[in-house]
């Protein structure tokens, strides 16, 4: 009896794996859901005409008539500034365990690095 139940259970587990995936529509069917929306979004993005400012910032005019720009968000400057600031703070603070100098230096360096990397350019 045990063997029979095990065979039935094993067969019940293998049959669903043998059936094809029904989530994808056939290749000849028109896409009308998520794929269609993503395709339209991609085509709109590709149809944009990009302009460049004198300092190299790309910008474009959106469907709503506003200007948008693509520029650095300052993450790289934040990380590099924090590392350099931590080393400088540790070198300046020569008393005790030097934790305070390291933490304060990292915080100041991160803020300074982010501001330098992100720049002051604004899109209007």
From TrEMBL:
GO cellular component term of the entry, any: cell outer membrane
Position of the signal peptide: 1-23
Keywords: Lipoprotein, Signal
InterPro entries (UniProt xref): Gly_zipper_2TM_dom
Main location: membrane
Keyword Lipoprotein tagged: yes
Pfam families membership: Rick_17kDa_Anti
Kinase keyword on record: no
Membrane topology recorded in Swiss-Prot or TrEMBL: Lipid-anchor
Protein localization: Cell outer membrane
Sequence ranges assigned to domain Glycine zipper 2TM in this UniProt record: 77-116
Family according to the record: Belongs to the rickettsiale 17 kDa surface antigen family.
Protein name, UniProt field: 17 kDa surface antigen
Organism field: Tsuneonella suprasediminis
Classification of source organism: Bacteria, Pseudomonadati, Pseudomonadota, Alphaproteobacteria, Sphingomonadales
């Amino acid at each position: 009896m045990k063997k029979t139940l095990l065979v039935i259970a094993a067969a019940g587990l293998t049959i669903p794996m043998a059936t094809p995936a029904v989530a994808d529509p056939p290749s000849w069917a028109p896409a009308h859901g998520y794929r269609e929306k993503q395709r339209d979004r991609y085509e709109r993005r590709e149809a944009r005409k990009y302009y460049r400012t004198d300092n190299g910032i790309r910008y474009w005019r959106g469907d709503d008539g506003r200007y948008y720009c693509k520029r650095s968000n300052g993450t790289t400057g934040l990380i590099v500034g924090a590392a350099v600031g931590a080393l400088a703070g540790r070198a300046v603070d020569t008393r005790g365990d030097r934790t305070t100098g390291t933490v304060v230096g990292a915080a100041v360096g991160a803020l300074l690095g982010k501001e330098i990397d992100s720049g002051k350019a604004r899109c209007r």
